[in-house]
Amino acid sequence: MYEEFYGLTERPFQLTPDPAFYFESITHKKALSYLGYGLNQGEGFVVITGEVGAGKSTLVAHLKQKLDDRRMTVGEVVTSALDGEEMIHVAARSFGLDVEGGDKASALAAIELFLHEEARGGRRVLLIVDEAQNLSIGALEELRMLSNFQLGSHPLLQTLLLGQPEFKHLLAQSDELEQLRQRVIAAHHLEPMQPGEMEPYVTHRLEHVGWTGNPEFASAIWPRLHKATLGIPRKVNQVMNRLLLMGSLEEQSMLEVDMLDAVIEEMSGDASPEVQEAPQRARPDRNLPASDAIAKARTESAPAMTQADTAARKKGLLDHQIEAIEGAFAQRDKHMAALRREVEKLAAAKDSGGALPEDIDQRLSAIEQRLDDQERSLRHVLTMMIDYFESTGTREAA
């Protein structure tokens, strides 16, 4: 919708990973350096971790574009909670091997034969495992065993593990993963983007879809955007999508910080995107499989919801509705002032005896359309407020 208004060829802030939009932030540049070093070694494990939305998948998609598929065969696995035998079968299928109904030994034999054939053909083999924090200790051990396959002294398989911070902690702490740890030849944790990278990131994605300066952005937007998203690329994309949508609906060619604040408030609801200081994560239990250990740690880290929390949440919803109405009326006043100025210009032109603009009918139609849009917006917000009061049915809310 907004891409048409601003003359863009497509949406610049889609949430799905797309290597065409890859932005080399400081942390992604470091990650590529570690990946390049690791892949040049041709053996062992390379580990990349990062928060949800930090750009791990986009980084790997960009990496794959740089690889020569005549010299490198890549298999990809996006994991759920897999045990050891399941991991072997899934790895085999990622290379296109038919192991349906076969046992673990048959799957291993098929993988080994495949690796030998690739090596004889002059191709290296890389296995990319995403969401590695979901794997059990047994599955991780099976991946380590796959790295033992060799042709003479030449290793046949290299593995890239991608995971959330829990996986980084598990790999560092688990006694059962000591042998795998010793085979990690390169590792990097993707950090959030820096405040100074907000504007380059946004303009990079916009320029990729034909942006030529419309809309413009107030300079105060960038520190506010970083504060609201903590520099997480996916969160930046979410906020920017909504900001551009608001800008197009209000026909704005300059996006101001008050519009960004309105978007952030609108997106917040009961849980603000302006993330508060994260609680300390509970460490995974070393005696449990990885998936169970992570689930237990997440449960222990989650705060209990008290009656006070519930009451505060209800109060927050009421406050949010009131603020929405106040904001709608403020927007109405803003539009009305602009419309008055437009009408005054037309009246002044008529009084001075000058010719009325040729597009007078179009301008009057635009004024009527804006008034209609504003009325619909106010009616919608008021309806939401009435629905809220009727649904709660309490004297306190009334």
Q: What is the helix content?
A: 55-70%
Task: Write down the overall mean pLDDT.
Answer: 80
Would you tell me which CATH topology of the largest domain applies? Rossmann fold
Which architecture name of the largest domain does CATH use?
3-Layer(aba) Sandwich
* Number of helical segments with 4 or more residues: 15
**Share in β-strands:** 5-15%
Order of helices and strands: HHEHEHHEHEEEHHEHEHHEHHHH
| β-strand number | 9
What is the highest CATH level, the class of the largest domain? Alpha Beta
Reported for the largest beta sheet, the result is: 5 strands, parallel
Shape: elongated
As an assembly, this protein is single chain
Rg: 28 Å
Topology overview:
Layout: H1 2-5, H2 26-41, E1 45-50, H3 56-66, E2 72-78, H4 84-94, H5 104-120, E3 124-130, H6 137-146, E4 150-151, E5 154-155, E6 158-163, H7 165-173, H8 178-181, E7 184-190, H9 198-208, E8 216-217, H10 221-229, H11 233-249, E9 254-255, H12 257-268, H13 290-301, H14 307-351, H15 360-392
Parallel strand pairs: 1-6, 1-7, 2-3, 3-6, 8-9
Antiparallel strand pairs: 4-5
Give the tags:
ExeA_AAA_ATPase_DNA-bind, 3 domains, Rossmann fold, Putative secretion ATPase, PEP-CTERM locus subfamily, alpha/beta, two-stranded antiparallel sheet, single chain, ATP hydrolysis activity, P-loop_NTPase, 398 residues, AAA+_ATPase, 5-stranded parallel beta sheet
